[in-house]
Specification:
Blueprint (H helix, E strand, L loop, with lengths): L4 E6 L2 E6 L10 H16 L5 E5 L4 E3 L4 H4 L4 H7 L1 H9 L5 E5 L2 E3 L1 H7 L3 E5 L3 E3 L16 H6 L1 H10 L3 E2 H6 L5 E3 L4 H12 L4 H13 L5 H14 L4 H11 L10
Parallel strand pairs: 2-3, 3-5, 4-6, 5-7, 6-8, 7-10
Antiparallel strand pairs: 1-2, 8-9
The structure holds 4-(N,N-dimethylamino)cinnamoyl-COA (DAK).
Amino acid sequence: MSELIISSIDQHVGMIKLHRPEVLNALNLELMRQLVEQLEAFEQDENIYVMLLTGSDKVWAAGADINDMASTTMVEMYNRNQFARWERIKKISKPIVAAVNGYALGGGCELMMHCDIIVAAENARIGQPEINIGVMPGAGGTQRLTRAVGKATAMDVVLSGRFLTAREALEYGLVSRVVPAENCYSEALRIAHELCTKSPIALRLAKDAVLKAHEMSLTDGLEYERKLFYMLFATHDQKEGMAAFLQKRPPVYNGT
Ligand code: DAK
């Protein structure tokens, strides 16, 4: 079985690169299987605090593999239950930083939206062009996108199939930062390493709480946030972080 992702570890950062260059990193079932298994392996690895997901310097991912889907029937699609695999990405509790160059389309945009800090290159082109091939988004492109950018922009993107530039995506709140293409990967890696200097347990609970803002009412979300905040007072890292501040020294976290 060929490797459709390339993974490596740099200190506490687990890195995954999508690698199907001949089809612009189109997300076929095997790539998604390898990707999800590697994310879960990093999730289990105590040495990994943060993950970094990237495509090539030309493309993030041009969507789900159209060859995979072209002659698929409704029942086959239903039985495949691809969504189960995507749901597993949602369960990754460690922060995922994305370095996005070039096209992030369809499933590629939906995969990008599963990431937590999204660094987009100036050359990034982001969209949900499923409408151009007779379908519509199926992995969050009508839901996460709308929550991120609001109805007006989501309707524009989903119904017209047009691509947003990186600058537009930043303006609409879909990506976190925009950088020159040549710096995209190094900037994302720098951010990932910066996150590794924080408490790993605080990072995970903070990610959890932010994501809940899309799923809970304000009252429930505030209560959830407060409980996670209290929970952190049972950790070594809370004692260490506050003591280090008062002693005017850098904290040494261990994620416990
Ligand atoms: N699938 C398969 N092959 C693709 C592909 C894709 N999505 N995108 C590009 N390729 C292939 C092209 O066919 C071409 O192959 P060869 O002809 O060389 O064999 C090669 O990559 C280079 O592409 P182009 O020659 O087209 O390159 P250009 O620079 O001219 O154009 C482009 C780049 C990105 C504008 C164009 O390739 C394009 O429009 N690609 C399709 C984009 C698209 O429609 N994406 C949405 C696909 S639908 C779900 C989960 C996910 C999804 C749904 C459900 N569940 C969990 C239920 C997601 C659905 C989708 O993403």
